[in-house]
Write a structure and sequence with these properties.
By secondary structure, the chain is an alpha+beta fold. The protein is 40% helix and 18% strand. It has 8 helices and 4 strands. The chain is globular and about 50 Å long. The termini are close together. The structure holds inosine-5'-diphosphate and magnesium ion (MG).
Length: 156
Amino acid sequence: MAMEKTVVLIKPDAFQRGLVGRILSRFERKGLKIVGMKMVKMSPGLAKEHYAHLVDKPFYPGLEKFMTNEPILVFVLEGQEAVEVVRKIVGVTNSRKADAGTVRGDYSMSTGRNTIHASDSIETARAEITRFFAPEELFDYNLKVWDYIYAEDEKE
Ligand code: IDP
Ligand code: MG
């Protein structure tokens, strides 16, 4: 068990469909702490860096166009084992295969329009935090309800 930070992006399809608040609310209710948040418009260069593992795929041009045309919401969540917890809440990439109860499983029908991104490992999360946030845009504050969200031996 370890205290971790992870990055979530709410994609343009979620903005268009009025899902931003509902999606954010799921992470808040789970007990994750929001430590940074902003709207950004991804540049093509940033998209190529963020999706470096996909730039050679046939669908990449469409993915880049979709992710750079309109603003997205970027935020950092903190909690015990946050990377794995958040990926579970998000669901698998193809929303049609995502479990009911996950964000993708409940809110979308698509792979290319799947409403949300989340870091897939601790290393990726670290790279994504520095990709999207300056150090002064992240906040270290005490979330008082953590006394009720975690037991004594879970607070690090
Ligand atoms: P992830 O978002 O679940 O981590 P990745 O494989 O990292 O999945 O892919 C990043 C994003 O690229 C996906 O969320 C999805 O929007 C898009 N994508 C991945 N595979 C496909 C595909 O086969 N067709 C269209 N878009 C895809
Ligand atoms: Mg990914």
